[in-house]
Amino acid sequence: KGLELIYKELREVLGRAGLEPIETKGKLFDPHLHQAVETVESPIHRDQEVVEELQRGYKLRHRLLRPAIVKVAVKGQ
Predict the structure, then answer these.
(1) What is the pTM of this model?
(2) Where is 70: in which H helix or E strand?
(3) Hey, how many other C-beta atoms are within 10 angstroms of the C-beta on 21?
(4) Could you read off the pLDDT of 13-47 as tens digits, one per residue?
């Protein structure tokens, strides 16, 4: 429980400093915010829609700190 409290406090401090996670799942791929490492054919997702987040990305005061690493859907043939 002690580590959970420290983690929670750290997230709150970083949030007050302007750190925010990048929303990915269900969003359209944006090369300015996302780094695609894999594409998957999917009939149920839109073309260029983020299917899975492999590593969370962050912005610090509206500047990209680290891009989100994602899997992106492509339209099947």
Answers:
(1) 0.81
(2) strand 68-74
(3) 13
(4) 999 999 999 999 889 999 999 999 999 998 899 99
